Amino acid sequence: MFMKIIINGRAVKESIPKPQLLSDSDVIERIFNHMDNQTTDLGDRVWQEPVEHYHSQERFEAEIALLKRTPVPYCPSAALPDKGSYIARKAAGTPLLVSRGLDGMVRAFINACRHRGMQVAQGSGCSRAFICPYHAWTYNLEGNLRHIPGQEGFPGVNPEEHGLVEVSAREKGGIVYVMQEGEITEDMLAGCLDYFSPEQQMFETDEMVDEANWKILNETLMEGYHIKSLHSETFYPYGLDNLTLVETYGANSRVTFPFRRIEKMRDVEPDKRCIDGLVTSVYLLFPTASVSVLSKHTNLAILEPISPTSSRWVLYRMVNRAADGVEIPLEEAKRDALFVGDSGQNEDREAARAIQESVASNANSHFTFGHFESAIVNFHQHLAMHMDKQ
Ligand code: FES
Ligand SMILES: [Fe+2]
User: Fold this and answer.
1) pLDDT digits (tens, 9 = 90+) for 240-279
2) Could you give all domains of the chain from N- to C-terminal order, each with its CATH number?
3) Positive or negative CA dihedral for 159, 126, 95, 66?
């Protein structure tokens, strides 16, 4: 399927493939084949990415511009459960306020009061109105300006023309996407999977800042070539080194990392095999988000670039369901999240920060991504394509 995208007034044809991912039993079959032959999925090209792209201000600004014209995950739908639920935070450097209206629709606004620009809400919560903390101009959930204290002091100011400025927001498959320039159409989300079921509960949110370019942090999630060397005492005792399945769908990808305990599926008939709890699946939602389906919980991670050399992780953790559809106990999901966060993920973040310290030196002119790192190659190929379209 092809669709026409307008970027900066120019029409660009972009294919939006319908995601076709392997079934559970095909995933398991392919993993067993790799285990038996000591192989892994391989890409077909080596990619060299200029190191400058990890510290240049110019490149950073071009990437922020891309994020503004791309539908980017903002939060799971479950993070805005009720009418009046809201989350305020920066996206692509702009403070946004995303809320669920009385009609159940999610709307996104630039979080800037129309009086003198103060942010009208902070953090998250549930409210029927947004009262600006500076001089109390008051907006409803639809962003309309409903009250100006001492309105006689503002002759000629028409409240109808001073609502919060809305940007595009759309929900699909349990995720709220926002785009600051232009309108998100259904076609633009055609390549997005249903990542969360409507009943899946969110149990935790978290934020942390790393002194590393967002791409270095993203790259740690997309290959299994480093499992034994970097995670020798954390993930490796449970997982396999350099054995991953890589599937790409447009700019997005799914990388499957098997646990050793997948062996128990050998005795199960192929059509009764189920991967839940036996693999970690990491979906890249191009460009800055990822969904990691772990044993007991799923993590939606959104990377917010702060500067060329620092990034904020915004994390939303959701409870998984067992194969029979029953929700896994909350305590188990929390333990799972603690284990992953305290161990292997910290090692990845440390590695990213260490890499960042040398990017501005002249040690490397390029970073090289090989055949084991094909999901990263796919990411960079698409990023380069989008950068060219500026
Ligand atoms: S800046 Fe919001 S009321 Fe003045
Ligand atoms: Fe890792």
Assistant:
1) 999 999 999 999 999 999 999 999 999 999 999 999 999 9
2) 10-70+194-388 (3.90.380.10), 73-183 (2.102.10.10)
3) negative
What is the β-pairing status of strands 279-285 and 289-293?
Answer: antiparallel
Tokens of 203: 């149990």
When computed from its CA atoms, the radius of gyration of the chain, rounded to whole angstroms, is 22
Ligand 1 atom with least separation from CA of 132: 2
What angle, rounded to 10 degrees, do the helices at 57-68 and 374-388 form?
A: 90
To which H or E segment does residue 88 belong?
strand 85-91
Ligand 1 near 149 CB (within 6 A): no
- Give residue-wise pLDDT tens across range 169-203: 999 999 999 999 999 999 999 989 999 998 899 99
- The pLDDT of residue 343 is 78
Q: What is the pLDDT of residue 3?
A: 38
User: pTM (2 decimals)?
Assistant: 0.94
Single-letter amino acid code for the residue at 64: I
| Ligand 2 geometric centre to CA of 229 (Å) | 10
| Joined tokens for residue 97 | 């306020």
Nearest CA to ligand 1 atom 1: 116
What is the overall mean pLDDT for the chain? 93
Pocket lining: 147 vs ligand 1, CB cutoff 6 Å: no
Question: Angle, to 10 degrees, between the axis of helix 330-342 and the axis of helix 344-359?
Answer: 30
